[in-house]
Amino acid sequence: FVNSVKASGLPIDPNPQNTKGPRRGVFFSKVAPTPLKNVRLAVRSSPCFQWVGLKQPNSEEEEEELAGLLSGNVLFSGSDPLSQCYCGHQFGVFAGQLGDGRAISLGDVKTTTDSGLVDLQLKGAGLTPYSRRADGRAVMRSSIREFLC
């Protein structure tokens, strides 16, 4: 597990209070995932686990530990969570500063098959500076749709 390669050398907002609001002159903001209560794994992909080198849990204790890591309640060693700031057009009009309103990148994981890197990201993990008026969470229905599609 390594810090985000895409962010290396780019300006990062330290964001020590995990606050919302506009940012200037940065590409990313540091964030802290908002903890959840009673987390558990609902579904998992064995091929994906193998691809990123995650060990399948063999006990209830290992299952709880993994659920904590994959929910953002506990951070992987070397993780420095970030949310991305960007600008863009929506519906043909410049929308100004946007960003990851509910997505938090935990860092990059080396794949076991092709020595590439993949970004391990949480969706709906809580507030980021770009959450606007929302709480940064995701409802189960949307999460399931994104997982399947």
Automatic annotation (TrEMBL):
Keyword Nuclease assigned: no
Superkingdom classification of source: Eukaryota
Keyword Glycosyltransferase annotated: no
UniProt entry keywords in alphabetical sequence: ATP-binding, Magnesium, Metal-binding, Nucleotide-binding, Nucleotidyltransferase, Transferase
One Pfam family here: SelO
GO molecular function: ATP binding; metal ion binding; nucleotidyltransferase activity
Cofactor(s) needed for function: Mg(2+)
Region (Disordered): 1-23
UniProt-listed InterPro entries: SelO (IPR003846)
Family: Belongs to the SELO family.
Name of the protein in question: Selenoprotein O
